[in-house]
């Protein structure tokens, strides 16, 4: 019997200091069902779908229409996990009114229970307006993929003292503003540890060391569904892409040889009807 309860924003907020929070991305109904069956705490409809699902080079090509489509699919899983959805690039940059409207659509049309926003202190006015609308916000600091061009690529952030101190300050501002948790991506482990100790909301790391209050990885990376090299911070727990290729190769071989479909995969008429249908026909006609 499943004794898990629905994961809520207050429940995640209360996990500061432990037990560790588990979070994974999901972009469709089957992925959300699998994540929930595994007992994941938070499912994130990440704009990383741009890369791993749609083959785009950056998340900047991913907009509201795409986010809402993926979010609706994940919501249909009716998971016990908390459903958090990324606000895509330009959905929270133009005006506060536009930002609240987009966050509201993600909740109303996409079924989100919280939204995630990339960036530090410059995003505070937008975050505060979203919170005023009673929409929970998860922050995101460090390597923020929507800022890839400004950062000059997907590079570890906070490696110098000034940059690290600035990120710690940003984290405190986000926590004080009301963010219920903050993702820390692509930062040195010591910085991940310091931020975790110095703010009173949970931190969720991705390439931020083991001291954060939780961890998040991309669904396709965890299951080995990608191609090429994975980032340093990824640990793959399966090689499903290789398994899928091998399965399809066997399918191709069976179809080519005539082994598939066999008797077990075919429908049959009763002997009487088959005899009636074949009466008067030449064999093989």
Q: How would you name the CATH homologous superfamily of the largest domain?
A: Phosphoenolpyruvate-binding domains
Order of helix and strand elements from N to C terminus: HEHEHHEHEHEHHEHEEHHH
Tell me the count of domains.
Answer: 2
Strand content: 5-15%
Low-confidence stretches: none
Cross-sheet strand order for the largest sheet: 1-2-3-4-5-6-7-8
Strand pairing plus helix content: what structural class? alpha/beta
Instruction: Supply the number of helical segments.
Output: 12
Separation, N- and C-terminal Cα atoms: 56 Å
Largest sheet: 8 strands, parallel, barrel
Task: Label the CATH architecture of the largest domain.
Answer: Alpha-Beta Barrel
* Principal-axes shape call: elongated
Chart the SSEs and their pairings:
Layout: H1 9-13, E1 21-25, H2 29-37, E2 42-45, H3 49-52, H4 64-75, E3 82-86, H5 96-108, E4 114-118, H6 124-132, E5 137-142, H7 148-151, H8 161-177, E6 181-185, H9 189-198, E7 203-206, E8 214-217, H10 219-222, H11 240-257, H12 271-278
Parallel strand pairs: 1-2, 1-8, 2-3, 3-4, 4-5, 5-6, 6-7, 7-8
């Amino acid at each position: 019997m499943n004794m898990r309860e629905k994961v809520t924003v207050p429940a995640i907020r209360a996990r500061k200091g432990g037990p560790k929070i588990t979070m994974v991305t999901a972009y469709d109904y089957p992925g959300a069902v699998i994540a929930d069956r595994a007992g994941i705490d938070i499912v994130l409809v990440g704009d990383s779908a741009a890369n791993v699902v749609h083959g785009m080079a950056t998340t900047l090509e991913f907009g509201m229409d795409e986010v809402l489509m993926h979010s609706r699919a994940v919501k249909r899983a009716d998971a016990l996990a908390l459903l958090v959805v990324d606000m895509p690039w330009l959905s929270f940059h133009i005006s506060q009114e536009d930002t609240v409207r987009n966050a509201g659509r993600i909740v109303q049309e996409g079924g989100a229970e919280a939204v995630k926003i990339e960036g530090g202190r410059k995003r505070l006015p937008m975050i505060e307006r979203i919170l005023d609308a009673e929409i929970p916000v998860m922050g995101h600091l460090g390597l923020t993929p929507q800022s890839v061009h400004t950062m000059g690529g997907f590079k570890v952030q906070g490696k110098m003292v000034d940059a690290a101190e600035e990120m710690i300050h940003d984290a405190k501002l986000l926590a004080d503003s009301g963010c219920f948790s903050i993702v820390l991506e692509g930062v040195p482990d010591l910085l991940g540890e310091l931020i975790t100790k110095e703010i009173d909301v949970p931190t969720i790391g991705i390439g931020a060391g083991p001291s954060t209050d939780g961890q998040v990885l991309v669904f396709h990376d965890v299951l080995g569904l990608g191609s090429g090299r994975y980032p340093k911070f990824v640990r793959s727990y399966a090689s499903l892409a290789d398994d899928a290729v091998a399965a399809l190769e066997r399918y191709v071989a069976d179809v080519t040889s005539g082994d598939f479909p066999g008797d077990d995969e075919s429908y049959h008429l009763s002997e009487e009807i088959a005899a009636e249908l074949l009466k008067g026909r030449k064999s093989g006609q």
